[in-house]
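Please check this today:
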Amino acid sequence: MDTYEQAQADKQMLERYVTSPGIDMDARYSVAGHGGIAFYLDGYAKEWTEESWTYDSEGDPDDELSYLYNEPEEVENTTMVRAIMVGDDHVWIVDIDDLTVIDEDSYCPSCGQIGCGWH
């Protein structure tokens, strides 16, 4: 991949993460593939962009001074969230399409089980 293609790929990745889908970070969720357990959210997942060099279109392409350095930066991926099981401390990175909002009365706030008999 040449520097132009890399710059375009970086731009597309950043554009993909700009728009927030409006996830309620205060709600509790069930997560597809993790049946029976409630999760809370700890924000969007974060990723690093790749470093790259981009030709400035002005100087000699063979001269390294004609290239601009694109420093890696941490960006929020608004298609993924950091989800934590209620009653646990392990962080899961989860696709927002796998989340389903659940009522406060449908899970145990202590153990996180959905439909727990103690609640």
The longest strand covers residues 74-85. The CA atoms of residues 17 and 78 lie 5 Å apart.
